[in-house]
Amino acid sequence: MAITLTENAANRVQKFLANRGKGVGLRLGVKTTGCSGMAYTLEFVDEVKPEDLEFESLGVKVIIDPKSLVYIDGTELDFVKEGLNEGFKFNNPNVKDECGCGESFTI
Q1: Most C-beta atoms within 10 A of its C-beta, which of 16, 39, 74, 83?
Q2: What does the alpha-carbon distance between residue 82 and residue 69 come to, in Å, rounded to a whole number?
Q3: H helices within the chain, ranges in order?
Q4: How do residues 47-105 score in pLDDT, each as one tens digit?
């Protein structure tokens, strides 16, 4: 079981954490929403909860709640620039289908 970051994603997270001036890592998760059923969540973490699972990728601590790991195990987080748009992209091998707008997915 693992979550990994590309070099671009790790660099971007480290810059965000440095600009914030605090934080121990990045929390990845899922929530029920959207037209396909599930959407990713991404937030900075200032304190790790006892039930959290922790991974480290390229010097970045990745924190996940146990319920979300089932849906995102094996995911690679990337940071991409496409034209004028830029953002984090989830490369999740568990996804069976995504909605047309790309905001939600099914397993």
Answers
A1: 39
A2: 28
A3: 7-20, 66-72
A4: 999 999 999 999 999 999 999 898 889 999 999 998 888 999 888 887 766 655 555 55
